[in-house]
Amino acid sequence: MIIYNTLTRKKEEFVPNEPGKVKMYTCGPTVYHFAHIGNLRSYICEDVLEKLLRFSGYDVKRVMNITDVGHLSSDADTGEDKMLSGAKREHKTVMEIAKFYTDAFFADFAKLNIKMPDVVEPATNCIPEFIHMIEVLLEKGYAYKAGENIYFDTSKLDKYYVFGNMNEEDLQVGVRDDVTEDTNKRNKNDFVLWFTKSKFEDQALKWDSPWGVGYPGWHIECSCISMKHLGEYMDIHCGGIDNMFPHHTNEIAQSEAFIGHKWCNYWFHVHHLNDETGKMSKSKGEFLTVSLLEEKGYDPLAYRFFTLQSHYRKPLTFSYDALNQAADTYKKLKDRALRIPAEGDVDQAAVKEWHDKFAETVGNDVNTAMGITLLYDVLKAELNGNTKRAVIADYDTVLGLKLLEETAAAAADNGEDVAEIEALIAERTAAKKAKDFAKADEIRGKLLEMGIVLEDTREGVKWKRAE
Ligand code: AMP
Ligand code: ZN
What we know:
Oligomer: single chain
Bound molecules: adenosine monophosphate, zinc ion
Number of helices: 16
Radius of gyration: 25 Å
Shape: globular
Helix content: 40-55%
Number of domains: 3
Strand content: 15-25%
Distance between the termini: 41 Å
């Protein structure tokens, strides 16, 4: 497999530390709000990467953290604590907010057919590990105490800007109007490992530590959680491109200072999904969530398809026009796959040949768009039905589009009562148009008795058989 490595800024042959095994880490969400579909673009691409590694024969162990403490509104340790602001907004406790949004996040994972990581660990589970790492960093002289907080001293490193192409001017803390510089820092990029004193007198979650009661900085969690479950040598670390600095830069700084050797070989960064006005936001404009798309009648997998049509290393612009097109193409593709007749013996040699073609093509830096092109090639190929089905099922273990999964609505198309159901739906639509809602409800009830569930969507009424 070939992967673009942000650390070397080159496409490289992927070689894990241990043959056949991959240790993979993903920065998880800050659970103070719903994830927007931009965040989920990153998680879809990372899911495809994991599935592609498995498809290529690797045994993968993937770990993800949940940020439920320590992430301030500016990544440079200033601004308000995101969890606290979420709790205030909803008049709930921080832990209630964390639980609610963690559950919502994984509900989105299920809808988008994203595999659960093998290990999911909330930051608040690992406070003793954080304290231990900070103690070692202090002992080794990589950290210092100032203003009653503990900071990482970036001047102690030979090279801090490991991702290279950064413009120091752009990275300066304090350049944005709403961000005030922390005068405790010895160097402008030093970052907080442990807060005992900050402007948040009402910080909800606090723990005892050798430096007083306080709470961890944001970056320390990923270093500790990854090492707890994957050890000191990691193969691939993922996140959105905004995580590259300061988050991943700081993770590398403290991890390598702690272990004394190189930590992770490959860095995989997904570029952003933007809306037409620019950056995707949770506070301005339409807050684009998977649930919102569903309310508008979209299948979440149509959004997955939309993201797979583009390359993860290019920014992607979201618009409803583009999504409509993707939804339409996805539906047609799925219909074609479902219509493949289940006939003939599976030609195993052909399946292997198509498997290898996919591994090579998509394996060239996670080229999902080429994977979709290959799907069309399979549909057109001179293969019997069952062989085509086998190849599509194989590809779908990576693409995750449920192409051969007969949804209730699709299955129903073959039922004998379809004409009657559709006649009743037409009657109900006419009743609604005539504002005879009692009649429309009565018909809905009758259909329900027949085991038929209706869904009013932008594209009209859809129906499926109750499970
Ligand atoms: P957060 O919950 O803010 O920690 O972000 C969760 C993940 O989403 C991180 O990997 C971010 O880098 C990523 N991310 C944030 N905004 C976007 C975006 N607009 N498009 C793609 N990924 C994003
Ligand atoms: Zn992280």
